């Protein structure tokens, strides 16, 4: 009896705080959001207690479908570009001389200790018609009229890639660094050219990193809203913007809740897919 | 050594290798003949693995040339050389099964599918891994992985197989068994093996010739019998088997003998070609060191019996010389033992002593021949 009581007490003391924390800051808000999604919107923001599923039905309106598709497409583009840019980047860091490595990783991480909003404003100053790049190009006489760079889809993509690149690079770097260099020598010893060493050994063995990097880029990119606001001038609507608008300007909390739930479900599906091909540990 | 084919297949001429400012291989000259089993032997850090890696193409000499089949391979990458390597940690591809691992090189060479199938199967039989084609490396023991690594290299029919301490990670029993199998494979296939090890026993049992390296220098190359019975340097005498090494100098000489004075006595040895007052080392293997209570002609060399150690078929006797140096003698277990504390005459039979020049004398001779000694570090000279 006493022993089992002791055991229970130990369990309570060790696991208890975590359960409390997750309950208070994850489960309750989540239940709250799910609850709201089945209620009716109130004209002044907030909700009326009148259960309905109409919020879910309105999801199937074509304009929302377009927002979802646009968002998924932008996230996909972002992820692919991040991979293409990030892989060589990660490869160089992983193979850099030992004394350089911490410095290179630091350079990669440094921007992340600055507020992302401020960093995105930085791009703003660079890209706008009166911005530094246009000024420079005009001064050296390469162009006469300023280029329209800001508030384009390209600018949004640039901002997304910039913001998310480290999320791609870090898992890739971990994965490439773990690669046993003698395997590359073995492949080359067995007659493989540099290209074949990469295709037959490096790429398959760093697949976990590629998956981890993709997921870690794709998922947050779905929810980003301030980049499309600031770099795209809110011309194209993405999921993040849509949700933000429902809560802040349209005052349609139930719809915002529904959209949030859909986003969470997409994330969960992706995580599930990921755990099938790799392990969560590769995310580190 | 296969006497029928004395064709040089690997030639290293004046090879130097520096890592940053450290010289790990120094003025290495070595010819390796077709079909022989040559072992690069030496303590860790002696440059043997670096030498092997230069032949494979993973490293390039800082100076000097390497020739494979008569061709300078300075501009050849590993994948352009007709040699294959068995790595110390096996380096099997973890994402491929046994069959695909072994087939890797053949796929690169674009060999036809049926032929790959046939040759890989043949190799799997040869290394006795039948039925394991579909296993992944993670599901195999160290010995099995080793066999896959050997098969993966041999299936390409290389001219030279390079082995970098391939048995280092195996336990003693398996190591002994694999030693026999490797030697057998080498004879059967007639491929040149260049084998790196720090285990002198392994080198003695397997090799046709042994190249002993120390501090980046090649100390001696020869058959196991030559390096064991006629070590050219103190290092070789010390490294290969057990030795009693006694320092002395030449006090008197006749036409065909030298009289050596040691700190603890004198001995007359039938040798010639030395200078008067030259400092030398005498090397006597424990099994050749004899003890007698009676005086021995040609010797005035005495010590005191300190200890007997019985190790199965032999007795080891420790003898202390007046200057404190301990000598080891081995006698058959059935021989009568001289009691501990007895003062004995120490001697050896003619021809059972090896006289070695000291480094100083070697350098003296080198200077005599006015050959470059630039870059020799202090520890090489002293």
Structure description:
The complex is a heterodimer of chains A (284) and B (382). Chain A has 284 residues and is mainly alpha-helical. Chain A is built from 13 helices and 2 strands. With 382 residues, chain B is an alpha+beta fold. Chain B is built from 10 helices and 20 strands. Chain B has 2 domains: 8-229, P-loop containing nucleotide triphosphate hydrolases (Rossmann fold, 3-Layer(aba) Sandwich); 242-368, Nucleic acid-binding proteins (OB fold (Dihydrolipoamide Acetyltransferase, E2P), Beta Barrel), CATH 2.40.50.140. In chain B, the strands form 3 sheets. In chain B, strands 11, 12, 13, 14, 15, 16, 17, 18, 19 and 20 form a 10-stranded antiparallel β-sheet that branches. Chain B has a 6-stranded mixed β-sheet with strand order 6-7-8-3-9-10, with helices on both faces. The chains are: A mainly alpha (284), B alpha+beta (382). Chains A and B meet through helix 8 and helix 9 of A and strand 6 and helix 2 of B.
Q: What is the helix fraction of residues of chain A, given as a range? A: over 70%
Integer average pLDDT of chain A: 87
Task: Give helix and strand order of chain B, one letter per element, not per position.
Answer: EEEHEEEHHHEHEHEEHHEEEEEEEEEEHH
Give the beta-strand count of chain A: 2
Q: Which features characterize this protein?
A:
heterodimer; A: 284 residues; mainly alpha; MetI-like fold; B: 382 residues; alpha+beta; Rossmann fold; OB fold (Dihydrolipoamide Acetyltransferase, E2P); ten-stranded antiparallel beta sheet; six-stranded mixed beta sheet; 20 strands; disordered C terminus
Quickly describe the structure:
By secondary structure, chain A is mainly alpha-helical. Chain A has helices spanning 2-37, 54-57, 62-95, 101-109, 116-127, 132-139, 153-178, 181-189, 194-205, 207-223, 226-232, 239-248, 253-277; strands spanning 40-41, 47-48.
């Amino acid at each position: 009896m006493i022993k089992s009581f002791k055991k229970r007490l130990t369990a309570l003391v060790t696991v208890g705080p975590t359960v409390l924390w997750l309950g208070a800051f994850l489960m309750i808000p989540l239940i709250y959001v799910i609850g709201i999604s089945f209620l009716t919107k109130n004209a002044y923001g907030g909700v009326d207690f009148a259960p309905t599923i109409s919020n879910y039905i309105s999801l199937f309106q074509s304009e929302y479908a377009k927002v979802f598709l646009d968002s998924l497409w932008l996230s996909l583009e972002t992820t692919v570009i991040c991979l293409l840019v990030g892989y060589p980047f990660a490869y160089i860091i992983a193979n850099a001389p030992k004394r350089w490595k911490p410095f290179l990783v630091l350079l990669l991480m440094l921007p992340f200790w600055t507020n992302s909003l401020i960093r995105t404003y930085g791009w703003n100053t660079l890209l706008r018609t009166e911005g530094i790049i246009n000024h420079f190009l005009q001064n050296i006489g390469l162009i006469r009229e300023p280029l329209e760079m800001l508030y384009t889809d390209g600018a949004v993509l640039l901002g997304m890639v910039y913001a998310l690149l480290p999320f791609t690079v870090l898992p890739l770097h971990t994965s490439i660094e773990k690669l046993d260099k003698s395997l590359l020598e073995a492949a080359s010893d067995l007659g493989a050219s540099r290209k074949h060493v990469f295709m037959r050994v490096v790429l398959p063995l760093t697949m976990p990193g590629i998956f981890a990097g993709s997921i870690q880029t794709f998922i947050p990119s779905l929810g980003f809203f301030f980049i499309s606001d600031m770099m795209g001038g809110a011309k194209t609507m993405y999921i993040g913007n849509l949700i933000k608008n429902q809560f802040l300007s349209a005052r349609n909390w139930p719809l915002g809740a529904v959209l949030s739930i859909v986003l969470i479900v997409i994330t969960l599906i992706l995580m599930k897919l990921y755990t099938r091909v790799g392990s969560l540990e590769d995310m580190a | 050594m296969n006497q029928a084919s004395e064709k040089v297949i690997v030639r290293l001429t004046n090879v130097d290798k520096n890592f940053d400012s450290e010289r790990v291989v120094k003025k290495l000259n070595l010819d390796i003949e077709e079909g022989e089993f040559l072992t690069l032997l030496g303590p860790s850090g002696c440059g043997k693995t670096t030498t092997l890696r230069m032949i494979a193409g993973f490293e390039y000499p800082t100076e000097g040339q390497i020739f494979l089949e008569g061709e300078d391979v300075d501009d050849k990458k590993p994948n352009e050389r007709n040699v294959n390597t068995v790595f110390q940690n096996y380096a099997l591809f973890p994402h491929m099964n046994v069959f695909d691992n072994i087939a890797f090189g053949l796929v690169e060479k674009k060999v036809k599918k049926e032929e790959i199938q046939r040759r890989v199967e043949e190799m799997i039989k040869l290394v006795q891994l039948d039925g394991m084609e579909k296993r992944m490396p993670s599901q195999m023991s160290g010995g099995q992985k080793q066999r896959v690594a050997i098969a993966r290299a041999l299936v390409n029919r290389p001219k030279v197989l390079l082995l970098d301490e391939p048995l280092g990670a195996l336990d003693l029993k398996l190591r002994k068994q694999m030693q026999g199998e490797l030697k057998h494979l080498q004879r059967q296939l007639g491929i040149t093996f260049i084998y790196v090890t720090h285990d002198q026993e392994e080198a003695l049992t397997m090799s046709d010739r042994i190249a002993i390296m120390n501090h980046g220098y090649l100390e001696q190359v020869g058959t196991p019998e030559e390096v064991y019975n006629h070590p050219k340097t103190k290092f070789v005498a010390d490294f290969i088997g057990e030795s009693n090494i006694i320092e002395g100098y030449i006090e008197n000489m006749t036409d065909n003998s030298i009289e050596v004075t040691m700190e603890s006595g004198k001995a007359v040895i039938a040798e010639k070609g030395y200078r008067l007052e030259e400092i030398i080392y005498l090397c006597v293997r424990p099994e050749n060191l004899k003890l007698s209570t009676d005086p021995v002609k040609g010797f005035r060399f005495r010590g005191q019996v300190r200890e007997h150690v019985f190790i199965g078929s032999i007795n080891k006797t420790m003898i202390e010389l007046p200057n404190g140096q301990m000598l080891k003698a081995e006698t058959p277990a059935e021989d009568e033992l001289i009691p501990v504390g007895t003062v004995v005459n120490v001697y050896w039979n003619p021809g059972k002593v090896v006289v070695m020049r000291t480094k100083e004398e070697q350098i003296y001779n080198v200077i005599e021949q006015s050959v470059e000694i630039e870059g020799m570090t202090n520890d090489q000279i002293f």
